[in-house]
Amino acid sequence: ExxxxxxxxxxxxxxxxxxxxxxxxxWLPLGLDRWGxxxxxxxxxxxxxxxRRPGMxxxxxxxxxxxxxxxxLFSWASIEAPLCVPGEVPFGDNVIYLANDWQTGLxxxxxxxxxxxxxxxxxSRCIFVVHNMGYQGVYPNPPNWAQPKFGLGDFGLRxxxxxxxxxxxxxxxxxxxxGRDPRDDGEAIxxxxxxxxxxxxxxxxxxxxxxxxxxxxxxxGLHDTARGRAYHLDGILNGIDIKEWDPATDxxxxxxxxxxxxHNKTLCKxxxxxxxxxxxxxxxxxxxxIGRLAPQKGVDLIEQVFGWLMG
Length: 311
Known about the structure:
Blueprint (H helix, E strand, L loop, with lengths): L3 E11 L2 E16 L5 E10 L10 E2 L2 E2 L3 H14 L15 E5 L6 H9 L9 E6 L7 E3 L26 E3 L17 E4 H8 L2 E4 L2 H6 L10 H6 L4 E3 L27 H13 L23 H6 L1 H5 L1
Parallel strand pairs: 6-7, 7-11, 11-12
Antiparallel strand pairs: 1-2, 2-3, 4-5, 8-10, 9-10
């Protein structure tokens, strides 16, 4: 709602084809500053047919075959986005790109290899955010043995500069052929590695996770990459908006309570039990899990104690 076309288009050459993206814009006003000037946030949206699909990454348990192209295109389009805000361009070179996870791992590489090489966006900086080292954007090179190997020229870059920052070679025992086929040299790229290696700064979701991602167990093979950027790596603790989540004023709750009077918390629990079709019993605990159904989140541990919980 409120999103308007800008009429601005950009074209990018990727994997032997031209791809034209269109930009859309929405202004979110946030009020006036202390000098009486209007403040707000520019939301810029990128449109291309490859993004108009039922799934984000794939369907029916299978990734889209062109995901590498899709996220390369998104990275290029995102870098151009500050230049596509309608009206006066308020950003110029003074832009901080906040790139999240492997899907935007090409952003700092493209900034360095293309824009800065041509003295564009020289004052911009890229902060790469790692939420989960277990998801690395791994793409074998070549994608299959019937195809030729790709290079950074396929990503719209003029040469192979910084390809080594993406490069990953799987050990023989982790390759599909287990070393029995000479064509299978284990070469791949990891977009997460490229983001960590090439960004100006790297941040993650907590000080403890900063340490975990540098460990052998928590780095999922990229612990040495994380250690190599230790000086430019920080962990920022997640938090909540204590005003929005204050149970004394939260308009999403049917009843309000606070630390000096917890009586209405029981009423909130009963309302939740009724909404979920559960027996309304004040002395029955409610145990909730919010997270992906992945071993990394400990779902298997919860499954092991089902009997004890229900007993």
